[in-house]
Specification:
Layout: E1 20-24, H1 30-37, H2 53-65, E2 73-79, E3 82-94, E4 102-108, H3 117-132, E5 137-143, H4 147-155, E6 159-165, E7 171-178
Antiparallel strand pairs: 1-2, 2-3, 3-4, 5-7, 6-7
C-alpha cells in the first residue's frame, strides 16, 4: 500500500502522531481487519461473529462502509517506521450504533500489544473528539476481565463509572472521559 493512499476517500481526517499514521479506515484494510479478528487472543473479550467467516466479513464490511455522523468512524493504524504493516484500528462511533453517547474503542494485532500504540492512537482520537468535534464526553465499554484495555482507558484519562453484569455471565466496565477533565 502506498503511504499517500492510506485512508484515501474515508472522509475522516488524518490523526497522525509522531510515531503513528492514523487514517480513516477503508475497504483496502478489510483483509487485514479480518486476519486480526481471526486471532482468538485479539477477540477473546469481544463478542462478534468471529467463528462464521461469511458473517464476520459482512460485519466488518458494514462497519467500514456505514455512514457515521461527520467526524465519527473508524481509523486504521500503521507505524511510521513500517507504513505497509497494518497494526489495528481505533474508533469513535455512536454508542450501540445510535448514541446519544459516543464510544471510543481500539483493537490491535497481537504483535503490536504492549508498546503503547493503543494509548497513543486513542489519545489522538480523544483530542479529535474534544478539540475538533467539541463532544462533551466519550465512553468506553470494556469487558471487565480485559485488563490491558482497561489500562489504556485509564492512561488516556478515562474513569470507571460502572460495572454491569452481562447476560450469559461476565461484566462490562463502563469508562467515561469528559471534555476538560482528562
Amino acid at each position: 500500500m502506498r503511504l499517500d493512499s492510506i485512508g484515501e476517500d474515508s472522509g475522516l481526517p488524518a490523526l497522525d502522531t509522531p510515531r503513528l499514521l492514523i487514517r480513516g479506515r477503508t475497504l483496502a484494510e478489510l483483509e487485514s481487519c479480518l486476519a486480526m479478528d481471526r486471532d482468538p487472543e485479539v477477540t477473546r473479550f469481544i463478542k462478534g461473529p468471529w467463528a462464521d467467516p461469511v458473517a464476520h466479513r459482512r460485519f466488518v464490511e458494514f462497519r467500514i462502509e456505514r455512514a457515521y455522523p461527520p467526524g465519527l468512524g473508524y481509523w486504521s493504524i500503521w507505524e511510521r517506521s513500517a507504513p505497509d504493516a497494518f497494526v489495528g484500528w481505533v474508533m469513535l462511533i455512536p454508542d450501540h450504533g445510535v448514541g446519544p453517547e459516543v464510544e471510543i474503542g481500539w483493537r490491535l494485532v497481537r504483535t503490536a500489544w504492549g508498546r503503547g500504540i493503543a494509548s497513543e492512537a486513542a489519545g489522538a482520537i480523544v483530542k479529535h473528539a474534544f478539540g475538533t468535534l467539541r463532544l462533551a464526553r466519550v465512553i468506553a465499554d470494556i469487558d471487565a476481565r480485559n485488563g490491558a484495555s482497561r489500562r489504556v482507558a485509564e492512561k488516556i484519562g478515562m474513569r470507571l463509572v460502572s460495572l454491569v453484569d452481562e447476560e450469559g455471565g461476565g461484566s462490562c466496565a463502563r469508562y467515561r472521559l469528559e471534555r476538560g477533565k482528562g
